[in-house]
Give the backbone structure.
Amino acid sequence: MLVAERQQKIVDLVNERKSIRVTELSNIFSVTEETIRRDLEKLEKEKQLARSHGGAVSIQSKDDIELPYSQREVMNVKEKKEIALEAVKHVEVGDKIILDASTTAWYMAKALPNKPITVLTNSIKVAMELSAKKEITVISTGGVLLPDSLAYVGPLAETALDSYHVNKAFISCKGLHLDRGISESDEQQARIKKQMMDITESVYIMIDHSKFGVQAFSRISGLETIDHIITDSKVDSITVEKIMDRSLNLMKV
């Protein structure tokens, strides 16, 4: 079987099953796991799938649907953890911060030290993670629960945010487009993230390299509302140069 043929079949399998492991692909195509990993790396660069911890997941129609938390949790894990660790460095004692319902925000919650800060969140996962850290005051928005993202959204959540003002907001998104701004696949998620940005002094966008150049269904805001972007080292140099031209503070980890 030709390499190109094998790679196309891998894409077809991932899209059909939504996720698949390296070991299984190795057995199906009778090649080494290292060969499969090289295939997946190439296919991810071509934006045909996304690598996960131990395999790959489908990104078919990812701009039009909200992927279940369980799928997002295993996508680009290494990069998200590195981004989260960098974000934690920008949290100081006494800060009042927002963490959204992204998986990167959850990794950030896991990495936050137990020190006197206040965290406002619309994420069940983030709130549960922080509940064991007694020095951290956790405020949950409440609202309508989205089962796929484990996020509270809707009028109640938005009204709750209106009652507060914070120092820093740490937010992820589905896509960052240099001309069209940041966006989400779900309109309700976009609305609450826009609200989070409106009540903070400083906005940190946490996204891995796969989110650049993507325009999802629902626009959150333009790039002029962003203060900092934290991303991984795989972002291409042309994108970095264009972001720097916009006078945005880009941090690569």
